[in-house]
Amino acid sequence: MKSLRKVFLVPVFLIGNIFFSSMLGQKDVLEQKTTLFEYGTVTASEDNLENLFRNFPVFIDNGKDIDFLSYKFVGVIKNKRTAKKYVRKNFKDLVPLGWSMMIPSAQNEGDKSSISYHIDFVRESKSELKAMIDTISRDHVNIGDEVYVIEFVENLQKHEHYVFINPNTKNILLKGNIFGVEIPRAHVAYIEKTKGKKQE
Question: How many domains does the chain have?
Fold first, then answer.
């Protein structure tokens, strides 16, 4: 008989809670991870956004509940004041996504891998949110980072979310990024395998 255990993790996003429920067996299978931005080919900054738009409805069970409308290059971070301006915009139009994951330790027949999002509660006080804005803009957004804005619709409401990309590495900043959840590659393998069976 398989043993079940719950593991609660620190949020990847500053607001949303991430938790693993009914996680089976050993956790070493979950150590190899990817993101919705990097899974796929990334040779240009825009590839991160193309990957997100393509991967979200595929690897997130209820991913089709979010409609990604567009993304647009906004500019380059020239100073910390500019960084803070964009980070503050994200908190002003905050959609606090939380993530629920059920990842089996081994792909046994009948085991289902599942990741879904939900809208969480903002538990932080105004002073705590201000401190988060300061920390992200001061310590994580760098001078020279490229800024893109993502337009999307959730629950029939249109939102904008700003993301920051290193122009040299093409890596996207995950801190403060509502879509910056790390996904176990075991889940990716499960979804790809399931898609393959459906196509047969």
Answer: 1
Distance set, CA 131 to CA 41, 84, 97, 124, 127 (Å): 35, 11, 19, 10, 6
Res. 28 pLDDT band, cuts 50 70 90: low
Let me know if residue 198 belongs to a domain: no
Q: Is 0.85 surpassed by the pTM of this model? A: no
SS3 label, residue 144 = coil
Q: Is 80 helix (H, G, I), strand (E, B) or coil?
A: helix
DSSP code at position 172: B
Q: Does residue 85 lie within any of the structural domains?
A: yes
Distances (CA, A) of 137 to 106, 133, 163: 40, 6, 12
Helices assigned H by DSSP within the chain = 45-59, 80-92, 126-135, 185-199
Give strand pairing partners of 34.
183
Is 27 contained in some domain? yes
What residues make up the domain containing 138? 4-193
Give the sheet arrangement for strand 66-76, strand by strand. 66-76, 146-154, 157-165
Between β-strands 66-76 and 97-102, what pairing exists: parallel, antiparallel or unpaired?
unpaired
Q: What is the pLDDT of residue 13?
A: 44
**Is 162 among the domain residues?**
yes
